[in-house]
Here is the input.
Amino acid sequence: KESQAEKFQRQHMDPDTSTVTASYCNEMMKRRNMTVGQCKPVNTFIHEPLPDVQVICFQGNVTCKNGKPNCHQSSSKMRITDCRLKKGSKYPKCDYQTQQLQKSIIVACECVQYETVDFDGSV
Ligand code: C5P
Here is the structure.
């Protein structure tokens, strides 16, 4: 079974892409299995090396949106792509808006290896 840490990497990690095209989210949301059964409404991809994302677990501690205490905000801005389902897009045609941004990100961490398990947002 896919672990929470593996799921985080499938859904959010894309370190080897630096510039994205307009069709990036349509392709990646499909390739990473987030358009199965329904179109996932919002998803962020991170274009930074995995170790740079894992160390966020040792940076500023913040409360997660769900009230849990194990979220951490990156001290530096990260290269990310924000994917948002376009209004009017109907499953199984998942049509996304692709937006490349540089923002601080918030992730949830768990202490198996103290690794990132959830993407909580960008600020
Ligand atoms: O904020 P919400 O609880 O609706 O987020 C649900 C999921 O959407 C998160 O677990 C995360 O996978 C994804 N998300 C994201 N980037 C955001 C907001 C949410 O990837 N900025």
The chain has a mean pLDDT of 95.
